Amino acid sequence: MDKQTSDLHMLRFRVRLPRLFELARRRNLSRATGDTGYLVHCLLGELFGEGAPKPFHLIGRGGSSRGGRDWQEILAYSVRGEEELREYASTFADPGNHAAIDWPTFAGKSLPRQWPAGKRLGFEVRLCPVVRKSCEESSRRRIVEMDAYQSYRMQLPDGQSEPDGREQIYRRWLAERAELRAARLVDMRMIQSRRTRLLRRKKNRAVKQCERPDVTMRGQLEVVDGEAFSSLLARGIGRHRAFGFGMLLLKPPTSGAC
Fold first, then answer.
1. Where are the beta strands (DSSP E) in 4-70?
2. I want to staple 221 with a disulfide (CB 3.0 to 4.6 A). Which of 26, 51, 155, 183 is the partner?
3. In angstroms, what CA-CA distances link 36 with 99, 170, 210, 253?
4. Please, what's the b/e burial string for 111-132 (b: 16 or more CB within 10 A of its CB; e: otherwise)?
């Protein structure tokens, strides 16, 4: 069993939003103040290098210091433990970035190394349900990301009504993810769906804004392959996993349907 599956940790910490926005100013990312996930991605990379925790989840995302909140709480998975991360940041991080973390409350725990086949777990996950499409543009072909629901609607014959709604399409999208072969989805439902503006860099490093679906699913699953399930947790689900999407949060199973 490799390190990714044998030494997976769950972390909880919080970030000072004023320090996060200061990082955005220093990196000429003023437009990113509306995309906390992108700024947290930048901060974690500067604090912890290539071993930055991911995927991560923003607890109560969407707040800002200007709106009366000074902190953003974060959950994350990491192949590095709490002490190793503390030591790396203390040794190498810029002091301003280091001060962005509330280190006294930085906490971690080890996750189980073995997940028995057949074990049932509750889950919640924030997803960006997109598909990649090839399109023609100015006599050249390029790959674009598209909302899975919009892609479905575009494939319907003209005049045909939609046999499946948005929730059904997103549920199907989740069930078809290859990484979920490690588990069997027992049931699930969509508890939130919205459009979110994100900040990303192009290949030439220029900054662009884009709008993507932002969906939260909740349900129950059953472990099929314990080692593969550990890899699933470490990897996350879908695209934009390094920016606050795709972290599979585990919960106690419920007795009935979700």
1. 9-16, 56-59
2. 183
3. 17, 24, 14, 30
4. eeeebeeebebbbbbbbbbbbe
- Beta bridge partners, 218, equal 124, 189
Helix (H) or strand (E) holding 65: none
d(CA 101, CA 119): 35
What is the distance in angstroms between the CA of the first residue and the CA of the last residue of the chain?
33
Evaluate whether 248 touches 241 at the Cβ level (below 8 Å): no
Q: Which residues, listed in sequence order, are joined to residue 215 by a DSSP beta bridge?
A: 127, 193
One-letter amino acid for residue 62 of the chain: G
3-state secondary structure of 193: strand
Give ∠ CA 29-34-39 in degrees, rounded to 5: 50
Distance CA 258, CA 187 (A): 7
Q: Are strands 183-201 and 140-147 parallel, antiparallel or unpaired?
A: unpaired
pLDDT score for 27: 83
pLDDT tens-place string over residues 70-113 = 899 999 999 999 999 999 999 999 999 999 999 999 999 999 98
pTM of the predicted model over 0.70: yes
Distances (CA, A) of 205 to 51, 125, 202, 209: 22, 29, 5, 13
pLDDT confidence band for 258 (50 / 70 / 90): very low
Q: What is the pLDDT of residues 25-45, one digit of tens each?
A: 888 876 656 789 999 999 999
Q: How confident is the model at residue 137, as a pLDDT?
A: 58
Would you mind telling me the total number of residues written for the chain in this entry? 258
